[in-house]
Amino acid sequence: MRIVLKECLWESMGDELLVLFDPREVITLGDPDGRVAALLTELSRAPQTAKSLARTLSVPEEDVTEALAALDSLGLVEDADSRTLGDPAMDARHFSNLAFFGTFARLDRPRTEYLRRLREAHVLVLGVGGGGSSLVQSLAGLGIGTLTLVDRDDVEPRNFARQFLYRHSDLGRSKVERAAEWVREYDPTISVRAVDRWINGPDDLKDLIDGVDLVAGGLDGDPEAHLWVNEAAARAGVPIVVGGMTRTQVMYYSVDPGKSACVQCDWENRADLGEESAGGFFERNRAGITVTNTLIGPLAMQIGSLVAYEALRYLTGLEPPVAAGAYIKLDLRDGLQPERQPFATTPDCPVCGGS
User: Fold this and answer.
1) Residue 126, SS3?
2) 155 and 107 in contact (C-beta within 8 Å)?
3) Nearest one of 41, 45, 56, 129 to 80, comparing CA atoms
4) Whether CATH 3.90.930 fits 3-82
5) Which of 83, 86, 85 has the alpha carbon at shortest distance from 106?
6) Residue 312: CA count within 13 A, CB half-sphere
7) What is the distance between the alpha carbons of residues 226 and 204, in angstroms, rounded to a whole number?
8) Which of 176, 243, 277, 291 could covalently link to 303 via disulfide, CB atoms 3.0 to 4.6 Å apart?
9) How far is 215 from 122, CA to CA, in rounded Å?
10) What is the largest CA-CA distance in the chain?
11) Per-residue exposure over 149-182, b if at least 16 CB sit within 10 Å of its own CB, e if not
């Protein structure tokens, strides 16, 4: 393997070597004899193997291998031959994606591997309206290989404050057909399917979930729609990531089948309708309250991006999902500071069994 040093700067200071890779921190390494600085200098000149480095630096190859492993643990080196896809057009298309994943690349996990996982993924997007339209754009930007889009609404004038997939010339058209068209125009290499249908229960999702790697978005209309999605995904063992907004909170959550609590777990722990409490009052009235959709463009984009990034965590293994079995809530009255609120767990949950 030819190893290359990632973009960084270093400076010797006494017996230590200071390395700057991520601007949030300076890495301090012990280097009393200057060997680490010499190794970095050689790596910065051109990609090299451990054997060629040992020969150039006149040190045992075992010492070089050990030093490279230490640099790898700090995220400072990667496989030189796996930094690009090998296709100039695709490398240009995914220039920023490859640069992003380069930060997390390791010798045994090249940046192209993260992108390959996205290109091979199939995501089912439920709803291409408010947050959903932004979600579609974010997923397409990441290069998700296959998208199935589901919605039943048509484009209306009131959509234009927050749904940037659509144009005035689209008024009256099926949203999902136009969204699929947008994806094809944006990136012809993405396979996209439009499904114009109402979802009235978990069985309506069965044929859509078969074969997908992740479900993202959310269904409007019925107050129990999120339970249908949860049940259908749990049956299939597929992760879900859902986002939305109340009057003053942006929120998203995810469910990792077999590992996290699910939405039904939390639902089973809601207050009783007859309970004389704020929770009981809420449950008695939740179905009757009418809330005008207050979602605006900047918040729709926030929801779409948060859901897309959580989806990225599941699909690439970049890091563990942060919203698995929990609501992540961003309060508009508190500067959109995030707060994690875990689902209540139900040991005998009828959907997940209390995972």
Assistant:
1) strand
2) no
3) 45
4) yes
5) 83
6) 20
7) 13
8) 243
9) 9
10) 80
11) bbbbebbeeebeebbbbbeeebeeebbbbbbbbb
Q: How far apart are CA 230 and CA 239, in angstroms?
A: 9
The Cα 230–Cα 226 span in angstroms is 6
Give the per-residue pLDDT at 283. Answer: 64
Contact 175, 155 (CB under 8 A): yes
Q: Which residues contact 31 (CB under 8 A, 6 or more apart)?
A: 12, 15, 16, 17, 37
CA 235 – CA 228 distance, rounded (Å): 11
Expressed in percent and rounded to 5, the helix, strand and coil fractions of the chain are: 40, 20, 40
**pTM flag (> 0.90):** yes
Nearest to 329 by CA among 265, 246, 269, 266: 246
Class of domain 120-342: alpha beta
Sort strands 9-13 and 146-151 into parallel, antiparallel or unpaired. Answer: unpaired
Query: Residue 183 is encoded by which pair of tokens?
Result: 């994806």
Dig out the tokens for 279 from the structure.
């929770």
Name the residue with tokens 């057009």.
89
Provide CATH 3.90.930 ranges for the chain.
3-82
- Is the distance from CB of 111 to CB of 98 less than 8 angstroms? yes
Give the pLDDT band of residue 353 (cuts 50, 70, 90).
confident
Domain with CATH 3.40.50.720 in the chain: 120-342
| Residue appearing with tokens 């074969």 | 211
Q: What is the pLDDT of residue 201?
A: 87
- For residue range 233-244, list pLDDT tens digits in order: 999 999 999 999
Q: What value does the mean pLDDT take over residues 227-235? A: 93
